[in-house]
Amino acid sequence: MAAPLFNLLRTNDGREAAVSGLLQPRWGSIRPEVVIPLPSRSASRPSMPAAPLTVGDPVRVVRGLLMGTAGTVQHLPEYPFVLETGAKVWGAVVAFEEDQEQFVPFFNLELLA
Disulfide: which of 8, 30, 53, 90 matches 24 by Cβ 3.0-4.6 Å? Predict the structure, then answer.
């Protein structure tokens, strides 16, 4: 289990939670989820961030060979990256726990916040 997810669950130990273990990693993907109801701190809704990802954001890979690994966004390239298939995709350079950096397409990333 990714360390950020484990820490989130550990900090909510003893609270009620709803768990769904469904997994369908293709189009229209369904991923396992845990919902922990928390009391509201304020009546206002939080605003959406201006950019989907920024340098330093914690992320988790949700598709591909690195599925399930967590890391930190190190760099957001200015141009699309050309994959081995020839497809040009936008993404981020992510540093993983093993001090390795790798380009990961945006559609394979999930923001951990």
Answer: 30
The amino acid sitting at 9 is L
**How far is it, in rounded angstroms, from Cα 73 to Cα 54?**
7
Write b or e for each residue in 34-56: b if 16 or more Cβ atoms lie within 10 A of its Cβ, otherwise e: eeeeeeeeeeeeeeeeeeebeee
Tell if the pTM clears 0.90, that is, is over it.
no
Which two structure tokens, joined as six digits, stand for 59?
């992320």
pLDDT tens by residue, the chain, 113 residues:
788 888 888 998 988 888 888 877 666 677 778 888 887 766 665 454 445 788 999 999 998 888 889 999 999 988 888 888 888 888 999 999 877 899 999 989 998 87
* Structural domains of the chain, count: 1
β-pairing, 88-89 vs 91-96, is unpaired
Q: What residues make up the domain containing 83?
A: 53-113
> Is 82 inside any structural domain?
yes
